[in-house]
Each structure stands twice: as C-alpha cells, then as structure tokens.
Batch of 3 targets.
Target 1
Amino acid sequence: MTLTDGRYWLGPSTGRLLIKTGRAGLGRKAGHDLTIEVTRWSGEAVIAAGDPDRSWVNVTVEADSLEVREGAGGLKPLTDTDRAEIKRTLGDKALLHTAAHPVINFRSTGIRGTPQSFEITGELTIKDRTRPVTVHGKGNGDGLVRGWATVTQSTWGIKPYTAFLGALRLADDVRVEFDVTRLEPANGPGH
C-alpha cells in the first residue's frame, strides 16, 4: 500500500485506534497502565500529497465501544471482572457519560508535512466540548501510517478516574494512538 492521492474510508477493518493510560498518586503500584481499543469507529481522509492544504481527515468514535485489551503493571493481573468494571466506569457520568454523549469526533483543520512525517491540527469534540488537538504521524515506504496525540482529560471536563480515596488515579494525560495498515477507497463497495 502506498499513500496516493485520493479519498479513503477508515475504520476497524483498516487499522486500530488505541487509548493508553498511565497511573499517578501514591497508590500507583496497585493499578494498571491500560491499553484500551476503540472497537467501533469510522472516518474519511482525503490525501493530496502535493498540496497538504487540500488534505483532511474526519473520525467519529462510538464512545461506548471502548474495550480494555491490556493492563500492564499492578500488583496482580487484570481480570475479566476488572475489564468489565473499567468499561462500566468509562461510560459513567463522571467520565465519558456515553448515554448523553454517544460520539467523540475529530475533525482536522490543517495538515502540514509529507506522507512520511506529518502533523494534523484539528478539533476534538468529547462530551459536547470542542478543543484543539495536534496529531503527530509518520508513514513508511510500505504505506503503514501510524501516529499519536496527547489528550488531557480535564480539558474536556473529564475527571481522571481515582480509587483508594485518591491514592491511585489515572494520569490526566492519555495517549491516543492509531495504526492504519491499509487504505480503502471511499468510493468502494458500501461507501
């Protein structure tokens, strides 16, 4: 796959979208650094390699589709019960409040660089609050595109999860990572 000019559809069949959390506080050894996968998301990207100003990307995430894939560290391994509890907590009013805010959206406002190294500025909307965010990305010669952005939860009114009377808490900054392994033309079947 090479990054050629065109309009492309994005989603779980073309790549992965992950959220990685860290721990803070005196009780951080008891908790886990989580890798959470977004299982239902979709988007479109227009690539104009010779004219990045004409390129854009728009991605929508179903807020209740976050699944815990991994828990590193901690005093004991992450169990299926832990995973279910974390998923329930993510949807809670204090965090994402998925019942009232079912989607998260990213819309680019500018793209700079080359297909090998680029920066996307855009607007991220979580819980009906829109704030700027910058995505850093790289493409390799085989067409694999990967990147990341730092999202500070409190900027969107999300109170980082705490336990043990605040001794264990998730760090306010989470890292959102993406890997796109193939590009599917947006005018293909079903699009």
Target 2
Amino acid sequence: MSIDPRILKTLLQLQWMPSLDINGSNQNNVLSTDSSQDGTSLFGTMLQQLMAGAGNSSDLPTVTSLQASSNAIPLGYNTPMLNQSIGGMSPISDLESSQANSTTYDTYINQAANKYGVDPTLIKAVIDTESSFNTNSVSSAGAKGLMQLMDGTARGLGVTNSFDPQQNIDGGTRFLSYLLRKYDGNVETALAAYNAGPGRVDRTGIQNDADLADKLQLLPKETQKYMGKVLHKQALYRAV
C-alpha cells in the first residue's frame, strides 16, 4: 500500500510526542503517545484510520487539530528528535529559551558588557546560574546579589552595595573581564576561577582550557558542575 508522505510525517511526529493524561499533563516523561486511560493512542487512532483506507492527509486529523482538541501540547512545543542542537548538547525548548531571555536587567547587563568587553550572554548565564536573577540572594558563604559577590571582592571592585543590581552587575562583570584577560580568553577556565577563586585554580597549575580538561578532577565537584551550567545557559541565551 502506498502511503502519502504527508501522512507518514504526521504519524512520525505523533509517535515522538510525550505521554499525556486526559488533562494534558506529562506522564513519566517518556516518549509515548498514550492519550487516555483505556490505552488508546493518537498514533494508533491515526494508523487505524489509515489502514481502514484513508486516502490522503486531508482524511486524517492533523497534529495541530489533535493538540487543540485535547489541549495536550502547547503549539510551541519541540520534540527532542526535532530540536537537538549541534554537538550533542541538551535539547533547547521554546519554553526554556523564553525563560532564559526574560530579565529586567538588560540595560545594566549591556552597559557592563560594553564597558568591560564581555559577551552579554555570558553575563546573563552567570547571573542566572549564581542567583536566578534574585537581587537579594545570599549564599551560605556570604556571597551576595545577582552575581554573588563576596564582601571583600565587592569592596575591591568598588561595589558599596551588593544588593544594588547596577553596582552588582558592573562589579561582577568587571571581575569576570579580569579573569578572561588573566586566562587569555579561555572562558571555561575563567568560569572555574569565578566560582572557585583564581588562587585555587592557579595552585592546580591550570592556565587555560586545555589544562582544565587534563586537571578537572583537581577542582571541586561544585566548580565542575558550575561551568557546565553556565555554558548551557549561555547556549540558551544565544538561541533567542
């Protein structure tokens, strides 16, 4: 039997939708198409119609119409198979991208980026990772504000109030710029130093990203995870 390519495309798209209950909530985050409690699936329904003799794609419900009728999946939803980034990174959904781009501090971030020559997406990623854009954030170690400045570091950067977003972003970006220059533009090494401190990084003998790859195990687990988080978030900001 010959199958219209448009029908096949629709079936394949449905086959990769996440499992949904009758209220539209995701069930166990598995790649299934069960849409009701009796085991009937959208994919199975369409396939049965096709086998029964539906002649073309107009005879079958579309993905959009099924979404609308079940209120199951937002129109902006991207399936993992259809939205993987280059290099094997985690999929970037529309929802993540929109959240990643939402900040009320763009003016301060762009000012600091231009002043110190730092990519604004990197500044946003550091802020997001450090404080989730919470100006009143205080860590257990006493780091404060958006970019989590320690009191001594803040004073050295000319920051008099770490909870002031403009001062904090300016000071944090100034420090990040210093680290990027110190390590000759090696971003991962600069991020490791931002989290663990340049002194600790220097004591391991790490001076660039190649050294970092060889000696990563010498850094705290928190720092290892921190770099990955920042780089992932930067990828999200670049995507929007």
Target 3
Amino acid sequence: MTTTTDRTDPMASAPSRDGSAGSRIATRLRDEILSGAYAPGARIRQEDVAEQFGASRLPVREALRILESDGLVTLVANTGAWVSHLSLAECEEMYQIRERIEPLLLRYSLPQLSPETLGRLQHLADEMQAGPDVETFLRLDREFHLLSYSGAVTSILGETIHRLWNSTQHYRRAFTTLIGPDVNRAVHYEHQLLVGALRRGDGEEAERMLAGHIRRTRLELSQHPSLFAQ
C-alpha cells in the first residue's frame, strides 16, 4: 500500500528508490522535463545523458525506464527515448479521467488534512493570486493540488494521478501562458473556494469545485489544437 503524507509534492515518485545512480539521474531529468527544459517529443539520447552526468549507459537506461513509468518518457525498442507527447484527443481523455478520479482522491484525503496543511493551502492560494510568473505559478499550483491530496492512503489511485499530472504538465504550462485575465481570475477564485470547502470539511463541495476546476483547463486547451501539433 502506498501512503501519501504531508510534504511539498506528496505524490512524486521516490527519487532515490534504491539510492542508485539511475535513480539520481532520473530525478534530475524529471525536474528538467517538468520545468520545460525538454519539449514534448524531444529525443533524449543516452550518450548525451551519460556525458552530462559522467555515467555509463547502464544507469542512464535505468533512469529512462523510471521516467517511462512516471509517464514522462516514451521508450521505443531498438530506437531510443523521447519526451512523451500527447495528441489533443489523448490530452482531453486524460483530463476527463482527472475530472473523475482526482475528486475521489481529495475525498480520501480530506479527513486527514491537518490545520497546518490547510493553512499552507491557504497561503499557496494567496501567493498564486498575487500574480507570480508562469513557472512560479506552475510550481505553486502543483504543490497546492498535490498537498491537498496528501492525507490520502491509496494503493493505486495516487500513483495513477501522479502519472497523469506528469503527462499533462507541458499542457498546463501552455494553458497558463494562454489564459486571459478573466480566466485567470476564475482560476484563483476556484482555488480560494476549494480551500474554503476543505476548511469547512465540506467534501461534496470540494469535489464539485475540483472537478469544475480541472474541466476549465480541458475546455480551454481544446480551443487551441495547435499546441498539440508535432
């Protein structure tokens, strides 16, 4: 069973699963992919990664397998590795899955959220509303949502949602860059309403707010098919 507990990214894959070189390389590459240093569809050459980290091919291959299990890399036998890329249809499907299962994880999490965690969620919502740059917003937004799930104890659901978050990270960045002031205000308003529902212990309202919050991003992305052109 996997237990998620209060920490900055409670569903992040364990970066040092066995303390191996492959795990350490995977951690660095994961950060680079999630930060946008690698674009979707970009090829990751084993020899370049080995040179970058002063490692042999073996730990690099291990790192790429870890990242594939995280939903960040696609491995093609006898060909190579690429940063995972979604079509519009795939992205919409993933968001529809998220709309349905993330509220369930939030339901599991809510009874275990401490006053300190709820206070941190409020602080993050306020900090995002203050208008940070895109990359700062993405970091705070990720911490906000994953922290809200941190009370959950699951064997499958948490890992599934973690993989979906990783796979859609680039498209959240595109959404955040594209949205106008009206949508931006709505996003912050939804964050505040979600925190309010969690503080009241109103799980039904929190689930409803979260589903609508995810749906907003899906519908906005569907208006920009050019983002998915390879």
